[in-house]
Write a structure and sequence with these properties.
Length: about 160
């Protein structure tokens, strides 16, 4: 059984410790280590999380059969839900948890889901396509240190 639990302040303070190993593993061989470290700081330092949260970002842990399996971060916009983060620990991948995430968001908001995914993350791109997402455009997002995120913007209809 998959459950979603909104993160409290203690959870948000510890999110970097939980997320960093997942990001290091997910992006190994796709993104340079220094770039990954810059992104971890940008997205998971507590002060930065509070800034994202003040702009409407919601953070939830994903539990599968009582075990913490991963986390999501999303924002509700007028025309869609923007799924900013969906990350699972390696032991939980391949269990169709992402399908439960998409159903959770659609059931909660009855809106399409939109997300960005690194074009080099073939495993994630394939998983999104299997779950009904299509590429609607590409995006290049400049980052600190001269790095650029080269993403697909994908959307899943209701």
């Amino acid at each position: 059984m998959v459950e979603f639990i909104k993160m409290n302040d203690v959870d948000l303070k510890g999110l970097k410790e939980f997320a960093a190993p997942i990001w290091l593993e997910c992006y190994d061989g796709i993104v340079e280590l220094e770039h990954i470290e810059i992104l971890i700081e940008k997205y998971f330092e507590y002060e930065n999380i509070l800034k994202f949260k003040s702009k409407g970002m919601v953070y939830e842990y994903i539990f599968c059969d009582g075990e913490r399996a991963g986390f999501i971060a999303y924002s509700l916009l007028s025309e869609y839900v923007y799924l900013d983060k969906l990350y699972l620990i390696v032991e939980q991948r391949g269990r169709h948890i992402s399908k439960s995430v998409f159903q959770h968001l659609i059931n909660s908001f009855n809106l399409p889901i939109r997300l960005n995914v690194n074009q080099g993350n073939e495993r994630a791109v394939a998983a999104y396509k299997r779950n009904g997402f299509t590429v609607i455009k590409t995006d290049e997002i400049p980052q600190k240190g001269g790095y650029v995120n080269v993403d697909y913007v994908m959307e899943k209809p209701v």
